[in-house]
Every structure is written in C-alpha cells, then in structure tokens.
Write a structure and sequence with these properties.
It is a single chain. By secondary structure, the chain is α+β, with helices and mostly antiparallel strands. The chain folds into two domains: about 120 residues, D-amino Acid Aminotransferase, Chain A, domain 1, CATH 3.30.470; about 160 residues, D-amino Acid Aminotransferase, Chain A, domain 2 (Alpha-Beta Barrel), CATH 3.20.10.10. Helix content is about 25%, strand content about 30%. It contains eight helices and 17 strands. Strands 8, 9, 10, 11, 12, 13, 14, 15 and 16 form a nine-stranded mixed β-sheet that branches. Strands 1, 2, 3, 4, 5, 6, 7 and 17 form an eight-stranded antiparallel β-sheet that branches. Strand 11 and strand 12 form a beta hairpin. Helix 2 packs across helix 3 and helix 6 crosses helix 8. The longest helix has 15 residues. The radius of gyration is 19 Å and the shape is globular. It starts with 6 loop residues before the first strand and ends with a strand. The structure holds 4'-deoxy-4'-aminopyridoxal-5'-phosphate.
Length: about 300
C-alpha cells in the first residue's frame, strides 16, 4: 500500500509505515472485530484543531463497550495520542483514524475472556473531499440501495465497528456500479436510514429532518453539529421517521459525515430535488460549519480542540 503517512502509532509507539503490520491470523481480519473513528483536523486561525476530537474518542470507547472489547488506554490518553500523531506528521489539516482491534486472540469466533486483548493504532494523513470536490459544490447523484441496513438487534448500527462496513461496502459499491455517486439505505422496516458512510438530511418548507437513532443509523457527530448549527441559525431541526418518498418531494437533501462533511444531494434515483443542487438551507448550514474553521462562526460549543504546533 502506498504510504499515507511516515509513521503510525501502535500500542503507544510511533512505528514506521512499512513496519506497521499485523499477523494474517488476526481475529479482526477474520471476523471484523474492530472499532474505529474518523476525525478531521482543520487548519484554523488558532492553529490546527481537532473537530470534536474528545466526542469522537468517547464514541470509540462506546463502540468498544458495546462489544466488550478491553481498551488498554484511558480516553484522555487517546485524545492526547491523536494530537501527538498529527504533530509528529507535521500536518496542519488531517484525517485521523484511531482503531482498536482484536489481534492475536487465537482462532475461533469467541476467544476466552482471558485471551482477549485489543491492539490500538492511530494514523493521521491528508484526505480531501470524500465524495469528490464536484459533489461538494454541485451535489451528488444518489440512489436508494437494494441493500437494507442491518436490522435492530442484529449487528448494532450504533457502534462504529469494522464489520458494519460490509453493509456500507455493498451499498456504496452497488451505487457506483449503477453510475451513482452514493447509495442511501432503507432500514429493515423500509423507512429511510442513512448513506453508506453518511447521515441523511431532508429539508422541507425550511425544516431540517433526519432519521432517528432507531433507524439503524450511526449517530453522527457531524449530524449533531449540523442540528445545533441549524437551530442557532433559527431553523427547526428534528429527528423524524421518514418514508423513502420523502426524498423525492424534498426541497433539499444533503448528507453529513466527518469525511463527507456537508455534501448536497442533487438527485435521488434520477429525480432532481426541488433545489437541484445545494439549496439555500444547505448553503446556510454549510457556511456556518465552514465558518467554524476560518473563524467566521464563533465556536460556541467548544468543538475546536487545539492540536498544538509541530
Ligand atoms: N453513518 C455511517 C455509516 C458512517 O460511516 C459515518 C461516518 N463516520 C456517519 C454516519 C457520519 O458520522 P460522523 O458525522 O460522526 O462522521
């Protein structure tokens, strides 16, 4: 694999990219037993800042709790380690990828509790627009996937676990093979859930609506930020159960995620949204979000966490 970084933090040590390897018999490779995060670092007027870094690390620990993976570090130690990796790579803006996985726990799906040990790695590297620059500007053409999201009480959608991304892989791959920029999934109940790697928002008559936690979604940190920013701008923003057809009659549709940021959706299944691209509400919310990073939007919630200079 082409190096994305000079070093990767593994179990407390910075390790050269080429030496950052695991054994092919690692449990996570066979059974998907990993939990991870994606966090963006933005170059702000106050220096590089992790966006809601502590909240992301908290969610990593929540994901580990759901699977009962032991975490060999405290939350604040991993927050600090994330900052250290960005500084060591000399990056001013970055995508951070912490991941905890079951490594050498022996064969078998359920290792004995004494054998279970989590390895932890953190990598920081440059990453541009997830769905492409054009999607950010003009909006992405999305489709409803033929694959549903995992049903409640099967594989927990609320944990950000490696195995969950088999679902995202199928949804994303199918969309691209069919010529779309991204796929949107329905839950097992046929109601709207989320994108392959993004949460979903619909704007109708000036109100922002997003499927609730019960809709087999990952409760995105960008999703939460967008709701708070939208309310600060005077919009109503609410969680709501939404049928598929709500997409086809929406004024605006957009998706949110750490990698995808705020990506407008231009069309769904070939049906243009009324706005036909980023509409006025999407633009206003995106401006407030972007403004956090150039100082135009006050950081009222303390979301920007300084990384410190290299
Ligand atoms: N849903 C899924 C399936 C995702 O992979 C992501 C990206 N982490 C999101 C939603 C958005 O979450 P966040 O805004 O916290 O990145």
């Amino acid at each position: 694999m082409q190096p994305l970084a000079k070093n990767i933090w593994i179990n407390g040590e910075l390790t050269a990219w080429e030496n950052a390897t695991v054994h092919v018999m690692s449990h996570a490779l066979h059974y998907g037993t990993s939990v991870f995060e994606g966090i963006r670092v933005y170059d702000t007027p106050n220096g590089p800042c992790g966006f809601r870094l502590t909240d992301h690390v908290r969610r990593l620990f929540d994901s580990a709790r759901i699977y009962h993976f032991p975490m060999p570090y405290a939350e604040d130690e991993l927050v600090q380690a994330c900052k250290d990796v960005v500084r060591a790579e000399g990056l001013r803006s970055a995508y951070l990828r912490p991941l905890a996985f079951l490594g050498e726990c022996g064969m078998g799906v359920s290792p004995s509790p004494e054998a279970i040990r989590s390895d932890v790695m953190i990598s920081a590297f440059a990453w541009g627009a997830y769905l492409g620059e054009e999607a950010l500007e003009k909006g992405v053409d999305a489709c409803i996937s033929s694959w549903n999201r995992v049903a409640p009480n099967t594989v927990p959608a609320g944990a950000k676990a490696g195995g969950n991304y088999l679902s995202s892989y199928l949804i994303g791959r199918e969309a691209r093979v069919r010529g779309f920029g991204e796929g949107i999934a329905l839950g097992a109940d046929g109601l709207l859930s989320e994108g392959a790697g993004e949460n979903l928002f619909i704007v109708k008559d000036g109100v922002l609506m997003t499927p609730p936690a019960a809709a087999s979604i990952l409760q995105g940190i960008t999703r939460d930020s967008v709701m708070k920013l939208a309310r600060g701008l005077g919009y109503e923003a609410r969680e709501q159960v939404l049928p598929r057809e709500a997409l086809y009659v929406a004024d605006e549709v957009f998706m949110t995620g750490t990698a995808a940021e705020i990506t407008p959706v231009r069309s769904i299944d070939g049906i243009m949204t009324r706005a036909g691209g980023p509409g006025p509400v999407t633009k206003a919310v995106n401006k407030a979000f972007r403004g956090l990073f150039d100082g135009a939007t006050p950081d009222r919630f303390g979301w920007l966490e300084p990384i410190g200079e290299a």
